Amino acid sequence: MKSNKIILSVCFSALIAAGFTSCDKKTEPVLTVTTPSYPRSLISANGKVYVSLFDGHVAQLDTTSLSVEKTVAVGSNPEGIAFANNKIYVANSGGLSTINDSTISVIDPVTFKEIKRIKVVIDPVVLKADAYGDLYLISMGNYSTIPYTLQRIEAATTEKVSVIQGLKPYNMTLNGDNVYLYSYDYDANYNVVNKSYSIYDVKSQKVTNSNFIASSAVAKTPYSIDVNPATKDIYIGETDFLNNGKMYCFGQDGILKFSFDAGLNPTRTIFTNSNKGLFVLNQGKYKGNNAGLNYYDLTASTNYNDYFTTKNNRGLGDTGQDAIRYGSKLYIAVYNSSLIEVINASTGVSIKTIPMVTITTK
């Protein structure tokens, strides 16, 4: 049965609570502490939604009750998450650790236990699965001797990890047999230079186009990349990290079709089931409590800013991190508010706000 929800993740707005369990004269009081778990990335599979949590866990959401069913501990500061070979894979970045992590956790979705870890290049972040069971991974490196690195993990067979030479992407998306990537450099004054947009074919394992969009086509810093699964158009969000950004739509020929204004740091584009419209998740400023959602009507070529606020008479939260559509619902991960916002993809109205917290006893 299809779902009618959209799931969003929001990071730091979760409540922190503490209390004592009941005890008798012979029992020491037990302190129960509830802390934010900070959702980062979302994936749907087998009727469930899975969320990587920056506190070192992965959660399984029931898409009927819209509640957390299970959690499992993984590596430090997990980021990207993917589903392939009937397993869940999550990139452990170690982004807040003294020494960044360099592993992929592998989770059995039936037992919901971590069964192994795969060693990769340091600080793995963006993780995608192709149709053949292989994984593609961007690691951020150490910002000095180890650059951004694209890797292929033969997850369906040997789990061999290979570095794909000649590419140093900041971000990517995968559609069909094509991985769409962008990269850039900084000059001595920290201006973005040498922007490039490439296509890598997973079957031939070759770059088929190293500059399918002109370097100057996106005026500022590219911040997101997604592909419309129906039309194969490529959507790229841009930012200057200070002002509202813009979303560009390019055809498969790399020619600009149209663009429209977005919010601050447009980080994800999600397409409706009917393909009559799309949502843009605007990350906002960290600790600015200004994450937002645009809706763009593809039929009428009309852009609706502050769509979530208009529909729900409240803000989305602090730091919109990721979003996916599952059936007729949109799930939004709001990182610094530490919540998943579930909205109706047809009306934009919130169905449920799911606090993402970790409960421990002391």
- Helix-residue proportion: under 10%
Calculate Rg over CA atoms. 20 Å
Protein structure class: mainly beta
What is the mean pLDDT?
92
CATH H-level homologous superfamily name: YVTN repeat-like/Quinoprotein amine dehydrogenase
CATH class: Mainly Beta
CATH architecture designation:
7 Propeller
CATH topology: Methylamine Dehydrogenase, Chain H
Strand content: over 45%
First and last CA, distance: 41 Å
Low-confidence stretches: 10-23
Q: Label the overall shape.
A: globular
Tally the structural domains. Answer: 1
Main sheet: strands, sense, barrel? 5 strands, mixed
How many individual helices?
1
Number of strands: 32
Concise structural overview:
This protein is an all-beta fold and 362 residues long. The protein has one helix at 307-312, and strands at 4-12, 17-20, 31-36, 39-45, 48-53, 57-62, 67-73, 78-84, 87-92, 103-108, 113-119, 124-129, 135-139, 149-153, 161-163, 171-175, 178-186, 192-201, 206-209, 221-227, 234-239, 246-250, 256-261, 266-271, 277-282, 292-297, 302-304, 320-327, 329-334, 337-344, 350-355, 357-361. Helices cover 2% and strands 54% of the residues.
Please provide a written account of the structure:
Helix content is 2%, strand content 54%. Residues 10-23 have low confidence and may be disordered. It is mainly β and 362 residues long. It has one helix at 307-312; strands at 4-12, 17-20, 31-36, 39-45, 48-53, 57-62, 67-73, 78-84, 87-92, 103-108, 113-119, 124-129, 135-139, 149-153, 161-163, 171-175, 178-186, 192-201, 206-209, 221-227, 234-239, 246-250, 256-261, 266-271, 277-282, 292-297, 302-304, 320-327, 329-334, 337-344, 350-355, 357-361. The radius of gyration is 20 Å and the shape is globular. It has 1 helix and 32 strands. The longest helix has 6 residues, at 307-312. It has a single domain (4-361), classed as YVTN repeat-like/Quinoprotein amine dehydrogenase (Methylamine Dehydrogenase, Chain H, 7 Propeller). Strand 10 and strand 11 form a beta hairpin.
